[in-house]
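User: Could you check the structure of this?
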Amino acid sequence: MVVQTFTTQDEADCAQGALLSAGIAATIQDDSAGGWRPDVPWTGSGFRVLVHEEDLATARHVLGRPDETRAKA
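Assistant: Sure, the predicted structure tokens are below.
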């Protein structure tokens, strides 16, 4: 599940690090041509931080987005 989307790899890396530090498994899905062009998002979809569905609410809280958790709950 996408917990948040970022415009840069650095932002996504920071978010992933925060989630991992909180004990939440997280990966980054990007559209940077397999890393060949990290400066250019090809489809405009950015860098998506993904977590397991059961961790979504906690992940949003860790990343400071609790309003989205309540809105979708």
